[in-house]
Amino acid sequence: MDAIRRLYTLAVVLLLLPAAVAAAAPRSDTPALPEQLHDTGLFAAGQPDRLGAGVEAFEPQHPLWSDGASKRRWIRLPPGTAIDARDPDRWRFPRGTKLWKEFSHGRPVETRYLELGADGHWRFATYVWSADGRTARLAPAGGSTLSVEGAPAGRYDVPSRDDCLACHAGARTPVLGVGALQLGPDLPRWIREGRLHHAPPAWRDRAPAVAGVTDAERAARGYLHANCGHCHHGAGGVPVPLVLAQDVAGNAAPGLAQLHEALRRMSTRVPTQQMPPLGTRIPDPHGQALLRAWLEQVPVSSTR
Amino acid sequence: MNPTRTAHHRNHLVRNTLLGGSLALVGALTMLTTDPVEAAEPAAPPAAVAKPVRPTTEQARGQYLMSTSGCMDCHTPWKLGDKGPEPDTTRLYSGHPEQLKMPPAPTLPEGPWVMTAGATNTAWAGPWGVSFTANLTPDIETGLGRWSEADFIRTIRTGRHMGRGRAVLPPMPIAVYNHFTDRDLKAIYAYLRTLPPIRNKVPDPVPPAPQAAR
To answer: Is A18 on the interface with B (CB under 8 A)?
Structure first.
């Protein structure tokens, strides 16, 4: 009787096993990333000088420091879709959303690409431009270092896909440059044009701004939000008790000692101490100046 | 870390995990249907009676993996015992002792010798500067208390703290340990959570001296 039971159990498990493996294995119907940037939809077909249909340029209020590279950014939402803004700090993007960011040092060097697939997963890639600026080819997944005139010491680091995840995967939303605080004055227009759903009614007239008593504080906290907040957001980012991300509703400023430490870390490029820990080779003089200007205004009584 | 390999790894893992799970299921069902030993055991004693907590299968596997992978060699300080150097198990996996202030590392002459280590095996000097082994116990302020399982796995996979912080320094053999499967790393994390938390703030690494100052 025992032998029959064992055989029966084994038969049931063996029958279920292939189906279970098939269900859990990653879906293979996700198309491979295009080998050429021109095939991602950034440009109109056959017209590399014209943007593709539905592709919109945007400019964040508080840009990320990228060793002085100049940058251009674009987004494309699938026709008839919109971003769900009901959580003002964690926008949800429709499947099929694509974003691009071009980095230039006198000439385009690379264009990074984010895509929210039909399976609900974000994909990250980057395309490296040929020296003549005619084509951009999918970069190796492991990243690379290029010789680029105009970049610090002539060296330019193309991120690996793990590097992409380092900043984008642990953030409150994987899209870092498109949010209420980053779009600023463009936000009411985005709502009018139907790109946002469930946005707070007040945003139709006026975009929310980074909290702060003075312009210097708002500028510095906006900088920290954009350059540090994707990890230091206190909601499952890095397990460090330091919040530099800004909530749309406003949040308390970090303590003075924390801000001085942040300034020290963003001013060094010692690999074990620098902040951000990856993505730049030289400190941002503008960012340092913003933080110093705010620190000069902070009354001693606010020291925590 | 090569993401292609990661993806391959993951596929492999999904299948391995399922296969493992299925085999475990076979075992469990077989036991349920055939083995009366468990049912014949006496009822559990009242909860008030202190009883050592038995590790789960996963925690025991994590302990096994750590003890066979050399983790003790660097993350538990060594002391001189009756029979020679031995790990100080009162400081189990708590990293470089906070109280042990190391003098500057010796300057080695030009040549093939590049690395020195402290007697505790918790402080290492080389071309990368000076590194101190981490406190792996679940102490909230000084250990891995705030680290999630995902933070731990991403660290070993990428060689960066939590996958997004500073690089993990030599001599930590990341290139060896990133071959662990996710199941292995989950087991190690599960075991680490069972360690007694030890408050021990390991010093920050010291960067190498600038070339000009040498």
So the answer is: no
